[in-house]
Amino acid sequence: MKAFRKIFFEINQPMKAQFIYLLILVILLPSYASATQTVKRNVVFILSDDHRFDFMGFTGKLPWLKTPHMDNMAERGVYFDQAYVTTSLCSPSRASILTGLYAHTHTIVDNQAPNPGNLTYFPEYLQEAGYQTAFFGKWHMGDDSDDPQPGFHHWESFKGQGVYTGVTLNINGEHTSYEDTVYTSDLLTEHAVEWMEQLESDQPFFVYLSHKAVHSRFKQAARHAGMYAGVDYELPATYSQTQGDSYKDLLWPEWVKEQRHSWHGVDYMYHAKEAVGDLVIDYCETLMGVDESIGTVMAYLEARGIADETVVIYMGDNGFSWGEHGLIDKRHFYEESAKVPLLVTCPDLFEGGETLHSLVQNIDIAPTIMAMAGLEKKPEMQGDSFLPLLVGKEVPWRDKVFYEYYWEYDFPMTPSVFGVRTDRYKYIRYHGLWERNELYDLKNDPHEMYNLIEHPEHQDLIRELAGEIYDWLESSGGMQIPLKRTIKHRWGDYRHSGQY
Ligand SMILES: [Ca+2]
């Protein structure tokens, strides 16, 4: 001690200050470290294609629908009943999930738009943090390629939309074709489990299990064929208004009437004369394969003893209309198109059985999974981590979500759309055609039946919401309408087939 005192008093003043600072740091460091130390959670992210938000057993929307494993997730975890995509279309939404960016920022604004080559996918940050990462299934984002993508140690994918049976997988650069008897949802799940099984136990892992299901043309696993035979699909409240002229009194835009008889309308769905109810049954039987995939993953995690500590997220890439407004499919900004299922479980982190009403979006997935790994989101990311909401922390959160969809050459019946949705109102603004816009009061009109766009008492609100759309676009580099080079015959347009 004497020697220490001697040295301490003999050193000069600046050195003394430094010494004291270091001493304080040494004393404080252990407690600081334990306060900020975050467990690197294992994360399994299961993404389905075109699964709308309310077609799950526990929502009660369809009394005959069975999704026992989604129901189980809702019981074990949190169900977000206000989860939206920022663009309701496969490629833009997938790019937003992977980057945390809006479509006008990442620029993959439709299913044809090329990858700009300058995007960073959040699993790349997980790799840097020591994670083992793997991708299984549908990529379908920026170019029609099945090549391995950055961010994944293990890769299994197929080109474009993929197929339900007899798939050819690019597995880490090598192609393997499977028999027609092999159902793609099962195969991808099996491979994801096999990959988790071979990992060293001390490596944190991230699995991105990305189903082809339930995209059209729907094809159920053989074991699920006929399970809903004979059930009744109750047509939605807004199904019939464009059969005649009653939509005019409700102030619906004309494009909605026009689209009724098209690839994406109930009177000429996929250019065939089919009944909505029959397709809904195929869709729901196909969904059963996704539900069982969740069940298989959960059973594996249970068997390994890590079900409570692992974060499992189930989400859809966009919603789907089944007859609402006389439409099928997605792209537009009505609820069933823009809203997606979102379920999260991790019993070690938060209790189950809760429904959260916060407005969350696909751009929040990257920051949230990074937070699960103990990482801060990157400053350029436009979404936010909803981890604090899951664990019940009071944090400032957005009170509105924005929406964009850019007109596609292949499906010209849906116009470009910009929109904003608050907890009560939705304003939809069309771009590039002679058309009225829309305002809905979702509290009093959950089916989006009564367009309030002309109501005098709502003009101030409409004007304010229009301003907020422009504030959002201006502040995020979205004031240019993206134009992509497209020289081909239109794919989904029977009126102008064979024309450039
Ligand atoms: Ca999709």
Number of helices: 14
| Tally of strands | 18
Bound molecules: calcium ion
Largest sheet: 10 strands, mixed
**Low-pLDDT segments:** 1-11, 21-37
The assigned CATH architecture of the domain at 43-238 and 286-398 is: 3-Layer(aba) Sandwich
**Overall morphology:** globular
Residues in β-strands, percent: 15-25%
Let me know the CATH homologous superfamily of the domain at 43-238 and 286-398. Alkaline Phosphatase, subunit A
CATH fold description of the domain at 43-238 and 286-398: Alkaline Phosphatase, subunit A
In spatial order, strands of the major sheet run 7-6-5-4-8-1-9-12-2-13
CATH level 1 class label of the domain at 43-238 and 286-398: Alpha Beta
Mean pLDDT: 93
Report the structural category.
alpha/beta
Task: For this entry, give a set of tags.
alpha/beta, 4-stranded antiparallel beta sheet, disordered N terminus, binds calcium ion, globular
Q: How would you summarize what this structure contains?
A:
By secondary structure, the protein is α/β, with parallel strands linked by helices.
Give the helices and strands, then pairings.
Blueprint: H1 2-10, H2 13-36, E1 43-48, H3 68-76, E2 78-80, E3 83-84, H4 90-99, H5 103-106, H6 122-128, E4 132-138, E5 154-158, E6 168-171, E7 174-177, H7 184-197, E8 205-210, H8 246-249, H9 254-260, H10 276-304, E9 311-316, E10 321-322, E11 328-329, H11 335-338, E12 342-345, E13 354-356, E14 360-361, H12 365-372, H13 387-390, E15 400-405, E16 416-422, E17 425-431, E18 438-441, H14 459-475
Parallel strand pairs: 1-8, 1-9, 2-13, 3-14, 4-5, 4-8
Antiparallel strand pairs: 2-12, 5-6, 6-7, 9-12, 10-11, 15-16, 16-17, 17-18
